[in-house]
């Protein structure tokens, strides 16, 4: 298989994505809960961040980004270095540009033109530049990998699919008539008064109190990446799978553009 080491890195990224998916199913990073205060006669719904579970996901997400970016650099290095002197190896990494207008100069500085015209054209076609018209998923891999050296990408809870009907199915006294509303990490989203509580459905007591109870609700809470600068708010698993597929696609295009005598096995 072409770019053997780079493809192993993509394979490892996909293994991590499967781990993230399993962790989110078994120990979700975000849940939606019901709070009952039997002393005050007050109930509320709220979003809960489960920090330990979130930390495990964050570390794996960072590793996915690192493996995908590393796969690009590995394949690019293997493509270019057979055509240049060893003294130039330090300049070789997959070319990313801040803008389309600077892409050609970036490609030149990364010595892609030493391989072939077809290879240069492949790099142009995959649009590795920021801003309008650029390859968003590809550039997120690049940008987040840089950020990851200082701060890991943190997925956020997506509570937009929760409806009042879903909540009333589990909380019969939940306020009626709520439409076009959203739920999120607001401390407490909805607060109401009540006095008659079935103790079997209060959930777990919150120490050190003996009157405050929390219960996880069975409602859909998604896990999304949020990158405001790129106006990106999409599911984590879907995003990571698309990124892995895109990197593999680019590696295949690069391989096909190599002169036959430099095909990488």
Brief overview:
By secondary structure, this protein is α+β, with helices and mostly antiparallel strands.
Give an overview in words.
This protein has 265 residues and is of the alpha+beta class. Helices cover 42% and strands 15% of the residues. The protein is built from 7 helices and 8 strands, in the order αββααααβαβββββα. It has helices spanning 4-26, 51-80, 103-109, 117-125, 136-147, 164-170, 236-257, and strands spanning 30-37, 42-49, 156-158, 190-193, 204-205, 212-216, 222-227, 232-235. The strands form 2 sheets. A 5-stranded antiparallel β-sheet has the order 4-2-1-6-5, with no helix packed on it. Strands 3-7-8 form a 3-stranded antiparallel β-sheet. The longest helix is centred in the first third of the chain and has 30 residues, at 51-80. The protein is elongated, with a radius of gyration of 25 Å. The relative contact order is 0.21. The model has no long low-confidence stretch (mean pLDDT 90).
